[in-house]
Amino acid sequence: MPPRCWRNQQKPRIEYDAHRKKSPTESLTMRNKIVLLTLLLAACGHLTPYKMDIRQGNLITAEMREKLKLGMTKQQVRYVMGTPLLADVFHENRWDYAYSLAQGGKPVEKQSMILYFENDSLVKIDDAAMPALTNSVKDDK
Q1: Considering only CA atoms, which of 88, 86, 89 is closest in space to residue 97?
Q2: Beta bridge partners of 111
Q3: Is 28 exposed, middle or buried (0-12, 13-18, 19+ CB in 10 A)?
Q4: Widest CA span in the chain
Q5: Which is nearest to 98 in space by CA: 42, 52, 88, 29?
Q6: pLDDT range class, residue 137, cuts 50, 70, 90
Q7: Are 99 and 55 in contact (CB under 8 A)?
Q8: Tell me, what's the pLDDT at 9?
Q9: Whole-prediction pTM value?
Q10: Looking at the DSSP assignment, which residues form a beta bridge with residue 116?
């Protein structure tokens, strides 16, 4: 049993002053808060996330294509073009170079080139899927 002095004490009452000034957030009603929150969330729906540019594969420039000549060895081709993106173990004499660029999640540019070798020598260049060389690049020779 608690001591006598504790039994007679009353708990302090918290009184609210109705005349005190309310802060701006206290003056909003629950309905106004919901409307404000809904408007803020609706405004965020029009924002789209940033989509970065994605480059994949070997970029093939016009200068690289001009340096490529029939009769070059695999080592010379690798020096000019870089390591092929796809070197198939079942087709060791075929090297595939591919490149793609996507901006904003949409493909913008695609290139592909296939090189064929016989006896460690370049015999065929298939670049039909490559953009045509411009006259300004051809005239520089």
Answers
A1: 86
A2: 99
A3: middle
A4: 111
A5: 88
A6: very low
A7: yes
A8: 62
A9: 0.56
A10: 94, 124
